[in-house]
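As noted in the main text, all predictions were made from sequence alone. Below is one such record, for Stage 0 sporulation protein A homolog.
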Amino acid sequence: MIHIAICDDERDFLTHLTALLKRYALESGEEIKISTYSSGLDLVEAYDATVDLIFLDIKMNDLNGLKTAERIRQRDEHVALIFLTTLSGCSLEGYKYQAVNYIIKPIHYVRLKEEMDQWIKKHRQNTEPFIIVSNDTGKYKVFLKGLKFIETFNRNLLLHTEHGHVICYRKMKEMEAALGQQGFVRCHSGYLVNLFYVKRIEKLEIILLTDEKIPISQLKRKAFMKQLADYWGNQLL
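Prediction:
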């Protein structure tokens, strides 16, 4: 399923674009879920990390599309953004938020179909595995490729990613079960590490490619070293 959000403060346009997307789903056979928001603040405050694509109006009253995109990028680096504008000579500023494209209003079905066909093709080629985690500030999409390690933190979990830290209200055993087939190994009662980032082992410390150090317990060291050797061997094939 593809989850699409539409954010525009013109209710008639929300209805119009929703109808076009439903027509596209019917004609293409794609399973599409559509969520609508009438303001940038609504989208940001109720942000759903399962969204794959956002149609985002640039000119909105409370929080314009560019400011909305900036805040979305703080919690989701990968969601696709397509800006909606009434200006034929629109600013290129939106591309610094990795916008897929601009669409000039009013939008017609032929234009939408062309955009959706192109985006879906790229989306399927570039989709990377991820997990959705939650905390008091909302839901976050965390891509496994950029997740270095997980540690216990104040009875919760702290996810260390290439883009910063994310608190997660899940249990370590649950994360270990979910990520065990994705190259993540428990090296300590309080740590789960992505083998991709392991550079070397020094006694009871793991040195990551980022030069960060995390502990490895004596109890788990033998099993961890075997899994690491198997992983490195597979990477050399």
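Residues 82 and 101 are 5 Å apart (CA to CA). The two ends are 34 Å apart (CA to CA). These features were considered when defining construct boundaries for the mutagenesis experiments described in Section 2.9.
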